[in-house]
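ok here's the first one, seq then struct tokens
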Amino acid sequence: MVLITGAARRVGAATARELHAAGWNVVIHAHRSFEEAWALAMTLNQSRPDSAQALQADLLDAAALERLAQAARDCWGRLDALVNNASTYYATPLGQVTPEAFEDLLGSNLRAPLLLTQACAARMEQGSVVNIIDVHAHRPQRGYSAYTAAKAGLWALTEALALELAPRIRVNGVAPGHMIWPTGNQLNELQQRAELARVPMARLGGGEEIARAVKFLLSEEAGYITGAILPVDGGIRLG
């Protein structure tokens, strides 16, 4: 059984569908998008009864993370994997960084994955954790200093927890590049073409590319892989 955070939409939902198709029971976490999470769970249950659940939690509430981990385990009496996918993403140009924005970005992208992994690890006999990071954690974008710092911390945390939790639990990461246009994308057609020109593969990846990478890292085929960060970015990091 796998718990996936932020799985109501976009990359998280694609990951839930991919893992479910591979035979996993999935717990779909959401906060503000719970109705979409519930609808996705019901759709998955139509193809395989009692194989998907939806749970709601605010990941910025530290106490809620323990409750989420326990509720996820209670769904089927076991917890085998965690995918830390939920992420807040927006620009914070220097001179406009507020304590509230920094805490929000750090909380969703670093603190929550750490505390939720801690809570889940205490409820796993053995298993695997996959963190969704970002190739820009090591190739910063102008104006995104707070987000970049949080994702860079998650990169380091992935490696640190791989040491601390081995051999019982493997911990790896997937580092996406341009996968899906951001929510509320305001880029015109010319600007979109310019962005795609930066990607050697000349296209957006889509959520399914991330989902397949997560599926691999959770599988037995990756049983000797821990502390690895797998770039799924169409080669944009090479530019």
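and now the second one, same deal
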Amino acid sequence: MIDFQRPWEDADLSMFRQTVTRFMLDELEPADEKAREEGNVGHAIWRRAGELGLLCTDVPDEFGGGGGDFRHEAVIGEELYRRSLTGMNIAVHSIVAHYVLNHGTDEQKQRWLPRMARGEMVGAIAMTEPGAGSDLQGIRLRANKEGDHYVLNGSKTFISNGLLAGLVLVVARTDMNAGSKGISIIAVETEGREGYRVGRVLDKIGMKAQDTSELFFDDVRVPVDCLLGGPEGRGFAQLMSDLSFERLLIGVNSLAMMEGAYEATLAYVRERQAFGKPVAEFQNTRFKLAEIATQIRVGRAFIDQCIQQQLEGKLDATTASMAKLWASDALGRCVDECVQLFGGYGYMNEYLIGRMYVDTRIQRIYGGTSEIMKEVIARAM
């Protein structure tokens, strides 16, 4: 077994990782099959994660968070994705918390962040529409100001945590004629919200345990103090400012899934017999695993450097895009090779590697497609 050490992990973080791992093994993993069948993990597991201090770990304790830093978020993502436990999209929950923390008013931070940290309010961000994906300028959902309320009309799709969300940050048009300056983010507390409706949980090829949904807004009225940060027209800038955090998380999670796939495959080929000897003894198997191990080692060096830059506040959009692009592409190649080494069993959902095969594909799409990442990188040349 090759040891993929993290230079940023100290003794305290190792203890935190043990807590995270126990939660995964004792509570999340046993419920994973049921969650995949039902399309969501339910609210109870979110509240349990909150009780254990596993939500909003890098949010200051004055707002109910864990008072940690990005490393704590990385540890949680790694332990989730190395097991392909994708039902709890803690990354999206954390991204929502960051939008509130970085752009919200003091009152908004106090109102929402403690409840998110306790798992009482699951976070989602509603950007994508049936006719608008990566091109946010195509957003059509309207938020018209009427007195002391905004009235929202429109729909969103592909919304992670959509079914269970208690707080949805809705990217909306507050001015149809102002281009990117006409986009704002409206926070919608969903419980009992008249006109707010969750559509079907979408039937995805992978990440079956995660509640990815359609959302509908029919004359949904929310107070004006739910406009993120106060003034209108800041939504596009707010979205752009936090993309590096999101894309690095995807890079971290992708690398962790590579490590999980490698470890599962290594264990399998050592046990599996073919032609009278373990599959691990065939040269092709050894060479394939050597290539994967090398990719992981190279990726670990780059991702760890990005984590350090994030901790120092120096991670730029170009580097974060490189992290997402490289790690998600490498993950796809790695898992495909691992499925091949499993043979027919790799095609079975009962095996971790089979679930990983379909769970990994979205990494090259959400958070900005690989093509968008290349465009961001190319613009910086």
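notes on #2: The longest strand covers residues 149-160. The first helix runs from residue 11 to 28.
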